[in-house]
Amino acid sequence: MADAALLQHRAEQAAAALPPLLVAANRVAATVAQGVHGRRRVGQGETFWQFRQYQQGDSVQRVDWRESGKSQRLYIRETEWEAAQSVWLWRDASASMDYASTRNLPTKRERADLLTLALASLVLRGGERVAMMGTGVMPSHGRAVLPRLALQIERETSTDLPAIEPLPRNGQIVMIGDLLAKLEDIERVVARYAAMGLNGHLLQVLDPAEETLPFEGRVRFEGLQQENPLLISRVEAVRAQYTDRLARHRAGLTAIARAAGWRFATHRTDRPPHTALLSLYTALSADVRK
Amino acid sequence: MLSLGALALASPWLLLGLAALPALWWLLRVTPPAPRRIRFPALRLLLGLEPQEETPSKTPLWLLLLRMALAALIILALAHPLLNPTAQLGGKGPLVLAVDNGWSAARHWEERRSAMDDLIAQADRESRTVVMLPTAPLPGGAAPQPLSMLRPADAHAAAAELSPMPWPADRKAALDRLAALDLGSAEFVWLSDGIDDGAATDFAQGLQKRGPVRVMADDADALPRLLATGEIDDKDLTAQVRRADGTLPAELYVRATGDDGRLLARQQITFEAGAVRTTARLTLPSELRNRAMSIGIEGEASAGAVLLLDERWRRRPVGIATPRATGTAQPLLSGAYYLEKALAPFSEVREGDIATLLKGEIAVLALPDLSPTGPGEKDALVQWIENGGTVLRFAGPRLAEQGNDDLLPVSLRRGGRTLGGALSWETPATLAPFDATSPFAGLEIPKDVTISRQVLAEPTLDLASKTWARLTDGTPLVTAEKRGKGWLVLVHTTGDPEWSSLGLSGLFVDMLRRIVAVSQGVTGNSDKPLPPVETLDGYGRLDRPSAATATIPASGFADTTASAKFPPGFYGTEDSRQALNLAPAVKTFAALPALPPGVTRMSYARGPEVDFRPSLLGIALGLALIDLVIAYALRGLLSGLTRWKRGSSVGAVLLLAAGIPAHAQDDDFAVRATKGFHLAYVRTGIPEVDAEAQAGLQGLSNILKRRTSVEAGEPLPVNIEHDEMVFFPLLYWPVVDGETPPSPQAIERINRFIATGGTILFDTQDHGESNAYNAAATQQRLRKIAAGLEISSLLPVPPEHILTKSFYLLHDFPGRWVGGTLWVEPSDEQVNDGVTNILVGSNDYAGAWAVDNNGRPLHAMVPGGEPQREYAYRFGVNLVMYALTGNYKSDQVHVPAILERLGQ
Q: Residues A133, A69: one domain?
């Protein structure tokens, strides 16, 4: 009893601390959930799925006597498949994520947080276990997980890339961030986790300004992570080169993901979060269903 | 000071700073603007990128130009440009201001006054004394005070006291006065009136002997004009207008003013180029002419621009002595009648007996065949002639019989002579051409003037000299003798047609005019001294004479010209006043000649001095502020501002777009709408909704074309705020969220549309999504839009409504959705033939009808599929038929009952 009360209390506390993010995440998740239906197939689980006629070889224990009593036949009660899987979420919380090119746009970090939590919410609804990478907490399921995740997301600051930690096989990793680190570093991380037998998804969240470099004239660019400032005398002249570089970076990311059997997607903060979430979730549930 | 026309630079050497501009250009070009600072996470991707183009790192050209302009402005401002710089004094010692203040200075006197004040103020700043030297004599010709050096403050007062005088200046006298003053080295400024009175060059030279001279003179078009006496005896009021400089053509107006100050006539006068004098001719009826007191040049206030008129300009009064008592029974045949008719056009005619006429003031006394016989009449007449009166006698039967009396210029033979009578071989005589010495010289003689009788003069030695007109045979017809100041004139025939046809001819009028002109005005005979009555001041205003004005001595008026002693004005008594005009006193009237070398000439005609330095510096400051803002903007410190700017510019563009003349659009719209039958929908301003309505009505139009005889054209959007709706029998109005409610004016128009028989289908389009909340919101929306529309209560379409019959037989009205109720106004047979104008549905009819460009339906039907679409189309057809034909099909509603009654 005490535990439950404590849990409830903490959940409430978390919810109180983070209502906007939670509410937003739930709302985004809700819109996506409508379009995606669960894993409608027979399997290990507790929820009733269907009756089917007894066949040779079925265990007698699985006969549903109440249903069988209504007719001359024997019916087996089948439950819906509930193969809970662990989903490890990671999102970039480094300083470079605190960026929004205009006041109207959310920062990349806000969008990444929202996506992470909404995805967690969706995954939890699906019955999967969820945990944040790097926290040391093992994946768990249930409604109460979400506020805790929210707290963790709020508090956690991380580096550009997730640290390598031993994770159980057959899990799913979702990495959300700007993924602007060097390709070699990303490849190393991805390769390590892929070697551990984990399936993964990379979602690159970028600000539109990062994609198009809309500045003009003489600009001194200042990094967000204590990099040396860079003076470019005519930004419009390097725009093409920049977009080319970005495209190559993305191509590299795609290649890395493909090599590991992972998926790579991009998202811009000026687009609605639903699309990214939907594609992410569809991919994720497709993987889970495998 | 560097002077460029009206513009001058106080410190021109500072313009050398402009030479530094290229250096500044170079400096600005190589110094790029400070870079904007932008935080950017994807910095790693930018590392090592080098822009290919080099130039942009320099300051942009427009900014460069802005800064160059800024620098140039500052340099210009430092050079201190002045427009119309006031004369800068150059010399040392006392400043002598020679001021022309004769009559000709009155025009633009204020400019002279301010020039004086400017100069005195400058002298004040330089602590110099001032000598004021007015060139016009003092009133009454009083001896002026000796000249003295004045402190500038006193000089200001002296300048304020100066005013233009109504008489000509006397520069020579002024020069003499100056000679009496020991000045040492002095600077001279001659504020001239621009008129050469004959002594201008001498005056300038005289001044130049004493020191440097600068002359200020009016421009040619600002010189004064002078009005001189014109032809006094002309039948019009005339005046001669003179000007000093005749190079340019000019126009001015001359006006005649009455004694009560009323404007009597106004006439435009044009000076041809090169002409310095012209004649102003004011045509006036005689009554008005006699009331004219002065002629003036409009808009010019000087004594020379006013011509005073006295009795001499009046029509001469002529008295016609009529026979006493006896009279004549036939007035139209009397000589007096012809005389009066001939005299009336140009003179004032009085009639009466001689004594009465002589009492009044007349110029000419005409005696038609009448001898003065009354007691003392002859003596009075003789006396009157001596005093200047003119007696004009006509011959006649009585005179011919009576023979000589004293009042004849020549002695006559008794009897007279008859030409061309019944018993004569001779023909009536005609007139010989007039002598050059005769007053009638130049008059044309009509051929039909014949003289059949005349009285003959005794031949005497002086007969020829007394003769003014004679017949072709040499006998005198008009003789005259001067007696004293007056004339005695005899016409040797009658004024009436009894003896000659002269009285019937135009020549008679002209001859009489000449005779009257010869006569002297009755007032010109005063022997009394003439005190001033009213005199002109320097600005040409009549005023009480000053005490200094002298009285013109007796019989000296004719020789008097206007001067300081006798200013122009009226002299005499109130009753009989004589005008003394300025013009005769002006001997020379020309523009200022070329001045001796070394004399600087300047013009008054300058605007006030304008100092450009403050405004230039102000503009430079403004540019500097703009530059500052730009500099901030380039560094990205004004992002908020630029966003605002972008928004506002978009707004401005929208405003501009909205401001495109709506008129032409209206016409276009009307033409389009009336070229055929069009379905129309109300534009909601929401693109998706409008597009769907367009597609829906297009689909319905296709169906109508295919199945009915209604040839509907392309559906048209209707802007209820602007467009005319009366062209459309049916309006489809999607009621959706976000629609702006119509303005009161639009409501008014919609009401009119409904009242004139238009039909509107409101479609809330939301039946498919309806729930309790939605329904309330829809209701709210509908209420908002339809607020103010004259709609009575609605009810669901009754089963036998025309809508169910008008083309297809229908029971319900599906759209994209099914089940939404279609509401109509209850039909009232009295109003609009029972055709209801308002339909409100929620089934999204446009959605059901909507087709794409290939005619394929756009939306799925819920839930009924294609049959439901068919019914939706049928409803659409019924609706259009209903809107077009009204209750035409309502008879059908009763067909069953009729059939039943017929017993079939």
A: no
